[in-house]
Design brief:
mainly alpha
Length: 167
C-alpha cells in the first residue's frame, strides 16, 4: 500500500469520526451482552458443540439498535455498531498484549508485523466500503459494519491463538 492510499484511508477514518464521536465507547450493558454471549459460546463448546466467537458479532449492537432511542436510524445504527466495535477492539488489544507475554520473541515479531499489515488491510477495506456508497447515508453504516466485522474476526482469531499458546 503506498503513502497516498494510507493517507486517504486515514483522512476517511478521521472524516467518519464525528459521526461516531457522541457515543462510540461501549457501555456496561454492551459489556454484559458481549460477556454473556462469549460465555454461552464457551459453555456450548464445553458441552461438545461446535460454536465460534464470531457468532457473537452483532450481539450488543443489535440490542442497542432495538432499545436505544434513534437506534434504527442510519446514525443510530452506526453508533451502536461502533460501540460494539470498541468492545471487540479492546479484546483484540488485550489478546495482543497477552500474546506478547506467551509467545517466543521471534513469534511475537511475526505477529506484530502481521498485525501492522492487518491494520492497513482493515483501514483500506473499510475505506472502500465507505467510498462505495458515495455520498449516501448508508456509507456510515457500511463503514461501521466493516470495522466491526473485521475487528471482531481478528479479536476472535487472536483469542484462538492465545488459547492454543497457553495449552
Amino acid at each position: 500500500m503506498n503513502f497516498k492510499s494510507i493517507a486517504l484511508s486515514a483522512v476517511l477514518l478521521l472524516l467518519c469520526q464525528p459521526a461516531f464521536a457522541q457515543d462510540n465507547q461501549f457501555t456496561v450493558d454492551d459489556e454484559t451482552e458481549m460477556q454473556n454471549c462469549w460465555e454461552a459460546v464457551t459453555d456450548l463448546n464445553l458441552q461438545g458443540e461446535d460454536h465460534t466467537l464470531q457468532e457473537c458479532i452483532g450481539a450488543a449492537s443489535k440490542v442497542c439498535m432495538e432499545e436505544e432511542e434513534g437506534g434504527m436510524t442510519t446514525m443510530g445504527m452506526a453508533s451502536c455498531i461502533m460501540r460494539e466495535n470498541s468492545w471487540w477492539d479492546s479484546i483484540l488489544n488485550i489478546n495482543y498484549q497477552n500474546l506478547k507475554q506467551v509467545l517466543e520473541p521471534n513469534q511475537f515479531e511475526d505477529l506484530r508485523d502481521a498485525q501492522r499489515k492487518w491494520i492497513a488491510y482493515r483501514d483500506a477495506s473499510c475505506a472502500f466500503h465507505y467510498n462505495y456508497w458515495g455520498n449516501g447515508t448508508m456509507r456510515t453504516t457500511a463503514f461501521a459494519s466493516c470495522m466491526l466485522d473485521t475487528t471482531a474476526q481478528r479479536a476472535a482469531e487472536l483469542s484462538g491463538i492465545l488459547d492454543m499458546s497457553m495449552m
